[in-house]
Amino acid sequence: MWTPSPGRRVVSAPATLLLRLLLLAGAADAAPPLVGVSPHDEPYFTTQVIACRDGSGSFPKSRLNDGYCDCADGTDEPGTSACPEGKFYCRNNGDTPRLLFSSFVNDKICDCCDGSDEYESGILCQNTCQNRKDIAEDDVGVHELSVTRLDATNEFTRKHTINVENLVHNSINKDLIQKLRGLRTALVIELGLVVGMFAFCIARRRSRTRKRQHILKR
């Protein structure tokens, strides 16, 4: 019968499995998913303590994409909408990468053609990225950060701005209607005052004429 030597230690199968699960859990906690981060920026988030790009402070790696804004410039929340100044990177494999404003993340509208911006919104985005071979790549074979910036005339933001434009248009119309109503009321009041003063002047003049005639008859 074989017996283990004193210098060796036997670990049971359940203990080994438990150890592996603990290691996997620890690795998951130590390395949160780099959602919304461009391939060029991935090395920046490898350290356990990460500095805010604007120099305002730092944060532990466990707070990366945790839904709370620790950096004013959104360095710690590239994959959420927690920071107003944050930007979300759409990889769009096979198509042109894009940067989104953080407010577009998980807003139930598919902005990235790969649908990566709606990973927690509960909707299913179809991958509409086109297989383009003319996208520039750097020496290590990673897509360059040549993204399309968002502006008011960009087709990419039109579906977001149209609702805002409608709201603004409706608001302007309501304000204009209210101003016109107020102006009409003011005109009616002024016209009433003018007519009243005119009638008062005529009545007063007639009253004086009658007094004069009465005096002359005496």
What profile does the largest beta sheet have?
A: 2 strands, antiparallel
Shape: rod-shaped
Write the element-wise H/E pattern from the N-terminal end onward.
HEEEEH
Number of strands: 4
Q: Class by helix and strand content?
A: mainly alpha
**Radius of gyration from the alpha-carbon trace, in angstroms:** 36 Å
Proportion of residues in helical segments: 25-40%
**Strand percentage, roughly?**
5-15%
End-to-end Cα distance, whole Å, is 156 Å
Largest sheet strand order: 1-2
Mean pLDDT across all residues, rounded? 75
- Count of DSSP helices? 2
Low-confidence parts: 23-32, 136-159
Keywords:
218 residues; mainly alpha; two-stranded antiparallel sheet; 2 helices; transmembrane helix; PRKCSH_N; signal; Gtb1-like
Question: What would you say this structure looks like, in words?
Answer:
This protein has 2 helices and 4 strands. With 218 residues, it is mainly alpha-helical. The strands form 2 sheets. The protein has a two-stranded antiparallel sheet. Strands 3-4 form a two-stranded antiparallel ribbon. The termini are far apart. Pfam families: PRKCSH-like. Residues 27-169 form the Glucosidase II beta subunit N-terminal domain.
Concise structural overview:
The protein has about 220 residues and is mainly alpha-helical.
Topology:
Elements: H1 13-30, E1 49-51, E2 58-60, E3 87-90, E4 98-101, H2 158-217
Antiparallel strand pairs: 1-2, 3-4
